[in-house]
Amino acid sequence: MERNISVIKDVNGKQIVIVNDIRFKGKRNIDWDEVEQYLKQYVGEFIEIAESKEIIYIGSDLPDEYSSSKYTAKLKGALAKAKANAAQGIPEIIEIAENKRFQENLERKHSKNAKYGWYRYDSRFAIPVFDENDDVLRYNIFHAELVIRHSENRKLYLYDIINIKKETSTPLEP
User: Fold this and answer.
1) For residues 86 and 78, what is the distance between their CA atoms, to the nearest angstrom?
2) Do 144 and 161 form a contact (C-beta atoms < 8 A)?
3) What is the rounded average pLDDT for all residues in the chain?
4) Rounded distance, CA 160 to CA 157, Å?
5) What is the DSSP string of 55-121?
6) Average pLDDT over residues 114-142
7) First to last CA, the chain
8) Diameter of the chain measured on Cα atoms
9) For residue 152, how many other CB atoms are within 10 A of its CB?
């Protein structure tokens, strides 16, 4: 599938993944089944985090978790649209991830798929805001946390992207 993604640095030298196309539209409701189908193209891929050189795998559980998690179900409006469209930039969002943090596995249901616990990373992405003529007015920048599970096979897998927050800094101009 063709993707229109770029990675830039902001004025502070921090990287941002630019998702140039709004593939998942909708003022009210996102078609999360469509997002889930889109994500299936990544299953089996792996991406290296530039900062730590760790390899993050995309497992078969990502599409369903990303589109059907409790966190996703609570998303409304701009944040739901941001998460849905961030799916297009997942490889790059992983690649620029930073600030690794460990968390013990506390749920029995994850005793195998996260046997060695969880990691969280921070990443950033931006999506365009269009005017009535479909010209880009600006880009809204979002901060997100990547949830990575450390599996029984000792590999790291992207599990979900959560805690998406719109940055209140000046938006990027086109």
Assistant:
1) 12
2) yes
3) 92
4) 9
5) EEE--TTHHHHHHHSHHHHH--HHHHHHHHHHGGGHHHHHHT-EEEEEE----GGGTTTTTT-EEEE
6) 93
7) 25
8) 51
9) 12
